[in-house]
Amino acid sequence: MIKKCFLFCLFLVFSTLFSISIEFLPQATVTNNVVTVFDVAATFNGIDETSLRNINLVYLPDNTSYDLDVRYVLLELSKIATDLVATPTNGTIWISNVKNQNPSTLTESLAKEIALESVLSKLSPQSEATILSVEGTITKHENFSVDILNTKTGTFVVRFNLFEKGSLTGFYSLNIFAKHLRKVYVATRDIYFGELVVSDYLIETYINDLNVFGTNIKLSDLPMIAKKNIKVGEPVFKEYLQTIPYTVKYQIIEGFVIINGVLVKAKFKLLEGGNIGDVVKAENIETGKIVIGIIEEGPRLFIVK
Predict the structure, then answer these.
(1) 181-242 architecture in CATH?
(2) Confidence class of residue 214 from pLDDT cuts 50, 70 and 90?
(3) What CATH number matches the domain at 252-303, 1.20.1250.20, 2.60.40.10, 2.30.30.760, 3.40.640.10?
């Protein structure tokens, strides 16, 4: 009894530590270069402020802005939370780091340096960035600010806003392509929802994983069942698959119920698949009656209703 109470208390402790609910701001203004989860959180429960401040997201240079993908924030939070409830679960958070600058002028070489450093600071280590093209000219100015736009395709636009006597006088933009190679498994054929996925359907290759989120699978995890349609050439992540259930829909198994101490058995056709302990509907093969039962090891069905 003492052991059971201890285990129950331990379960409550871990549930408290690793269950987090959080609501994100639609936009945030920061004063530090390193943006943390706390900076983009509107409300949160199940975690303290210090812990959120310790989760770094991006490096934002002075006088720049950035559209942060919510899915990336959730990915970072999932590393410390086993139960995570968030609002919203997709979209972007606009972050701005605006500070008063000392008057300074922009040159083409300085623009290239700032643009590459700004883009790489937002990416994973070992990422690469290349300038594709330049738009505009550097007009006479006293100072400038920088905006970074993520096109969600691995291409960034770094725009310099040029100011003279407090008025905007021109723009100078650099289009930058970024990549970060990652080895993943991709589909060698179209895979459909509910289909059994085996190793023959996958091949390992490198992809540019910027703005691609997912957990790599291992061939030893297969076979598994597809939770969505997956196109040929598309990465296959663990989030797209589910384990094979202990029982499947339309499987015929033995069901039983105890009435006045008497064990009564019959054959049932499952109307939905499930694992041990799941509550499912089934049809009595002989009478056609629909019942509800709990899947037990065997498999067999304990009729509850």
Answers:
(1) Alpha-Beta Complex (3.90)
(2) confident
(3) 2.30.30.760
